[in-house]
Amino acid sequence: MTTPDILVSEVGPRDGLQSVKATMPTADKLRWIDALHRAGIREIEVASFVPARLLPQMADAAEVVRHAVTLPGLTVMALVPNRRGAEAALASGVHKLTMPVSASAAHSLANVRKTREEMIDEVRAIAELRRDLAPHVKLEAGISTAFGCTLQGDVPEDEVIWLAAQCVAAGADEAGLSDTVGYANPAQVRRLFRRLRAELGDRAGAAHMHNTRGLGLANCLAAIEEGVRTFDASLGGLGGCPYAPGASGNVVTEDLVFMFEAMGISTGIDLEKLLAARAPLMAGLPGEPVYGMTPEAGLPKGFVQGKTHV
Amino acid sequence: MTTPDILVSEVGPRDGLQSVKATMPTADKLRWIDALHRAGIREIEVASFVPARLLPQMADAAEVVRHAVTLPGLTVMALVPNRRGAEAALASGVHKLTMPVSASAAHSLANVRKTREEMIDEVRAIAELRRDLAPHVKLEAGISTAFGCTLQGDVPEDEVIWLAAQCVAAGADEAGLSDTVGYANPAQVRRLFRRLRAELGDRAGAAHMHNTRGLGLANCLAAIEEGVRTFDASLGGLGGCPYAPGASGNVVTEDLVFMFEAMGISTGIDLEKLLAARAPLMAGLPGEPVYGMTPEAGLPKGFVQGKTHV
């Protein structure tokens, strides 16, 4: 098997499930994660290590991680908002930690009641914890509101790049950029990822794009053309629907994989099996709306994965 | 007022209304077209000149054209499938004719019961009619199924480019490419529009993209980067929903204009007024679903048109 051209990092089991009111039973989560793995997904953000009273949907985080790490070839990632979360995540045996750090000063204070400088200190503390407890575990900083913020509007690009560089200097292995509220446009995506790569080289991380205004795939296209090779996405577009019904948050994994595969960019993911992974998601969250155009429309007639279509 | 960077050609009143079962009353059509014009839209495909028994939604085509041509600065376009339609359209006073010519041999026979060669003859006949009756009227050939076909699957690129060139040789002023069934991907869009421009130069026409598999805006982004300057789109994504609820056909005008304006590419269209143009559309087609992510989510905080957002 050849190495895929890009890595699609599935965030549904964390980002998606955290955003819906219902709690998916643990057994369903595991079935869903198994189906994603069977489709060829090789990185999954499976849980968030936060107090269960805040996010009951994530109360089984450690159990989910312990199952996920048994799946061959899978990088198991968990979100940690702080040191305490990182300790629990490391104890559970995750392969990778992701920590959200907001580029918007207003959003950082509103969301985690910390300044950006305090969050850089938190990244440093987590990096040290990781070094002491599990040095093989990767640490990613996800720069949220990197393309704008519902509280303060524009977020200066210089501050985004400064923050990403500070996170890496504090010990993160990589820093990616997140369009948390769906404000990004392709020209901005190009500019910011170009600057990020110029600043961080191979430590420039994932593109986490939202489809709030319909630009999710166009922004991913701009990102790949700037050298981004890791793309966050959520099966069924689950998660992050802060505005209105129909306005999905995360980029839909199925549509993203279809776009790249149709372009001849290999993802290592089997599209038919990926579409089949919607069944356990829907079974575990009855009545919850799921999105995606490719699943509705089906694959084009004569579409063969791995073949460049004329 | 400076010249916009691109032209967004609104196809809703023809392509959209033709695809829904209900017939929008003429007075509502005119109100909708007025609202589109007020928003700054400068080209509208207002009607299709086909027998009323086939498409009762278009029975008022001549009346709609006669109103639309009174709006200052507006290019009024009509679809004509054949000579007879072209005669009626020219008599009504349109500024531009668009004629669909299918690149898929199978689709051409199934759709209009003519071979592609017979359709080229039809283009020639219409071009001559136009020259004799109204030489100032423009004639566009829209190469449909240019990116694939539900009947035959892949459509060879050589045949697409050949057909576009034949249409121009037969007298069309320009030839554009249509992703009639939503099969296109950005790499293919780049290749085909690059070849089209190499073949036809300034006679390379519009990109008519569908959003059937969610790639509509990504394909428009690829097209603009290949020099395309005219983009077809439909307000509320009206029209072309051959598959399933939620799987909209045409690219949504609101999302397309938001993407380009956010990128600093001027369209000449006022986004707030464009969103307001949804009201007469919805009033004229009560109960009909309309699409669009930007209208659901609203414009970003602090978004100012004409300003490049950081």
From TrEMBL, chains A, B:
- Keyword Cytoplasm recorded: no
Q: Which InterPro entries match?
A: Aldolase_TIM (IPR013785), HMGL (IPR043594), PYR_CT (IPR000891)
UniProt KW Lyase keyword: yes
Domain of life, per lineage: Bacteria
Task: Tell me where in this chain the Pyruvate carboxyltransferase domain is found.
Answer: 6-275
Q: Which UniProt keywords apply?
A: Lyase, Metal-binding
Q: Name one GO biological process term.
A: L-leucine catabolic process
> Care to name a GO molecular-function term for this sequence?
hydroxymethylglutaryl-CoA lyase activity
Which protein family is named in the record? Belongs to the HMG-CoA lyase family.
PANTHER family (UniProt xref):
HYDROXYMETHYLGLUTARYL-COA LYASE
Protein name, per record: Hydroxymethylglutaryl-CoA lyase
**Annotated source species:** Rhodoferax koreensis
- List the lineage, top down: Bacteria, Pseudomonadati, Pseudomonadota, Betaproteobacteria, Burkholderiales
